[in-house]
Amino acid sequence: MKRNIAILSLVTGLVLGSTLLRDNLFTSTVQAQGVPQISLNEGQARLQNEQNTMDIVKSYQDGVVYVSVYAQPEENAFADSPFGGNSDPFEYFFGNPQQQAPQQRSTPEEPEQSGVGSGFLIDDQGYILTNYHVVADSAKIRIRLHRSDKEYDATVVGKAPDYDLALLKVDNLDKTLAVPMKLGDSEKLAVGQKAIAMGAPFDLDFTVTEGIISNVGRVIPTGQRGIPQKAIQTDAAINPGNSGGPLLNSSGEVIGINTQILSPSGGQNAGIGFAIPINVAKSILTGLKSGKTVSGPRIGVSGLPLNAYPLNQLRQELIDQYKLPKQGVLVQEVTKGSPAEKAGLKAGNKSFKTSIPQLPNIVLGGDVITTVDGKKVESTSDIANQLFSKQNGDKVKLEVVRDGKTINVDVTLASFDDSQ
């Protein structure tokens, strides 16, 4: 026992002693007898990767913008929720979304700063890409450039809540201070590539972090309705405030837009961050510039999952009567003029009351969508996930159970008016 204590004391002494010795070393240079002193040149000692990062930051950091958001005191509901504060699991996913009208105030109030975020210039006309959740419900937006303390008023030109993207416009930017960023090709990414994140984490404006691409097709809930979509995963440090900032490759091209983190500690970086692939933004940029609210592809139906409440509470005789399968999405309504209507999808005709305030009735007798392009679906999110990889004009093949029989229905995606 004494021997063990002696060994432990020796080890402890080595650790503490090393610390004390280190702290008490003379700071002057000591040259050993006969060994020539080496003079380190910082420029020559830099690694190639280090120099590349420094060159990228020097060349493109002026394209990053610091975003300050001002909102009415009680209106900034979406900022902390990936689902937009909407917890109703039966919200329409594919047409006729019900939107709650904003509350009217008897007396106007001055906007107050509600948050900060990041963005980046995409051209010399003052267009800026950022996340929708950064600017949602904002009463006023102001931006600041890297090398200036001057603030500019920004307006939201277009928004895409489903993709968590927004396009801002700033007039009269000082073009000597603003450097538009180059948009890359996120389809060419490979795991292991370098990734550089720029933005304002924790309100520390114009911060740079570096890592690698950890995964090129990670599926995560994205946007106001939390629809699962592909994202770029990176271990470059991303934190609150980085949202909307650019993720760059070693060529200085924007490959993604920083959007979310996975954090067991509740808000701090844990080495797992996500970015929206830049090709997603490029594919909807024309729509954003036109001033539209860009939605993800929809077929024009509302539906309820068979394995979710209240349908999983149905009596067996109703299941037998309407010949319902064990899994799938039961069509509740088909929007007039939609791709679903043109393809011949059928809604039910028998209404049943429920005890759910948000969903007073369910409709039986309609089609049940069981697969999209051969992939099983159990929820409206599953259907949305399959559709979000498509474009208008693409065809999707639905497997549908109708009156107990399985049929195939081809749906051609197209824009449609769902204003009703």
TrEMBL record:
Which Gene3D superfamilies does this one have? 2.30.42.10, 2.40.10.120
Q: Which residues form a coiled coil?
A: none
Q: In what residue span(s) does the PDZ domain sit?
A: 328-404
Q: Mind listing the UniProt keywords for this protein, alphabetically?
A: Hydrolase, Protease
Disordered: annotated segments: 94-117
| A UniProt-annotated Pfam family | Trypsin_2
Q: Could you tell me which SMART domains the record lists for this protein? A: PDZ
Q: Name one GO molecular function term.
A: peptidase activity
Q: Which domain of life is it from?
A: Bacteria
Q: Which residues lie in Polar residues bias regions?
A: 96-106
List the GO biological process terms: proteolysis
Name this protein carries in UniProt:
Serine protease
Q: Which organism is it from?
A: Deinococcus roseus
